[in-house]
Write a structure and sequence with these properties.
Layout: H1 2-5, H2 10-14, E1 21-24, H3 27-38, E2 46-49, E3 53-56, H4 58-64, H5 72-87, H6 95-110
Parallel strand pairs: 1-3
Antiparallel strand pairs: 2-3
């Protein structure tokens, strides 16, 4: 994965906080945080906060991984990578941005 990360521009990598925390939360807590920060009460797969906290909901991963054709482990890894990409400045608010992030996540999961 380190080699794949090395392909990102140094500008993007400099945007990352010096420390990252990955926090696993229940669906209830995920929904509470999602509502508070984005106005959506549904549990979120992942939320990333500028101070470096990545909040992941394993219950969402358990529900969705088969539909995405991934193992539970790879679904969780995808959420973590997604959070890191957001912290590095990537956005998925457009179709192009979302597609770019999915491609990068897949490449990082494969380690190349």
């Amino acid at each position: 994965m380190a080699a794949a990360l090395g392909r990102f521009s140094s500008t993007r990598l400099r945007r990352l906080p010096h420390e990252l925390s990955i926090v696993l939360v229940s669906a209830r807590e995920s929904g509470r945080l999602h509502q508070r920060h984005l106005g959506d009460p549904a549990p979120a797969d992942v939320l990333a906060f500028p101070h470096g906290e990545i909040v992941v909901c394993p219950a969402v991963a358990a529900e969705l991984h088969k539909g995405h054709g991934l193992t539970f482990r790879d679904e969780l890894l995808t959420y973590i990578l997604h959070g890191i990409l957001h912290l590095a400045g990537f956005r998925d608010s457009s179709r192009t941005g979302a597609l770019s992030m999915r491609r990068i996540q897949a490449r990082l999961r494969r380690g190349n």
